[in-house]
Amino acid sequence: MNCFIDTSAFLAVLNKDDANHARARVAWGDLLEQRTPLVTSNYVLTETVPILQHRMGLDAVRLFHHDVYPILAVEWVNGVLHEKSMDVVLAARRRNLSLVDCISFEVMRQRGIRKAFAFDAHFEEQGFDVVP
Predict the structure, then answer these.
(1) Is the pLDDT of residue 75 over 90?
(2) 37, part of any domain
(3) What is the number of structural domains in the chain?
(4) pLDDT digits (tens, 9 = 90+) for 45-69
(5) Out of 53, 54, 70, 108, which residue is the most buried by the measure of CB atoms under 10 Å away?
(6) At CA 118, angle to CA 117 and CA 122, rounded to 5?
(7) The domain containing residue 61 runs over which residues?
(8) Does any domain span residue 100?
(9) What's the CATH code of the domain at 59?
(10) Which of 98, 2, 105, 94 is nearest to 46 (CA)?
């Protein structure tokens, strides 16, 4: 069973100062040990890299790019998916529901993914099973 990985999980795994770091490391280890196929979107990557660079520096970006990125199946967002997700953002009229979140939900639905590794309450709110 595939697992979608959110920015919040990547940041928690890589940043020892993150409040969720300990739980994230255990969950990450479990996913790797079980050889769970890990899926994300290029929008999540685009969101993750500058945050890593700002908070932790280029060494963290290098680690992410060389050690994490190669084990991910990346769903590349096309114009149709972008526009559909933008419509959801605008229709929701919620300030804290991001375009990246809406794209993640749609990718999960399209690929039949039920499990998300995330520390973002929106995933559970959308009915997905959240790890940890």
Answers:
(1) yes
(2) yes
(3) 1
(4) 999 999 999 999 999 999 999 999 9
(5) 108
(6) 130
(7) 3-76+113-131
(8) no
(9) 3.40.50.1010
(10) 98
Q: Are 104 and 2 within 8 A, CB to CB?
A: no
Residue 94: the pLDDT is: 82
Q: Is residue 89 part of a domain?
A: no
How far, in Å, CA of 131 to CA of 58, rounded? 28
The helix/strand/coil state of 41 is: strand
pLDDT at 102: 97
C-alpha torsion angle, residues 33, 35, 37, 41 (rounded to 10): 40
Specify the 3-state DSSP secondary structure of 75.
strand
Asked if residue 92 is part of any domain, the answer here is: no
Share of the chain above pLDDT 70, in %: 100
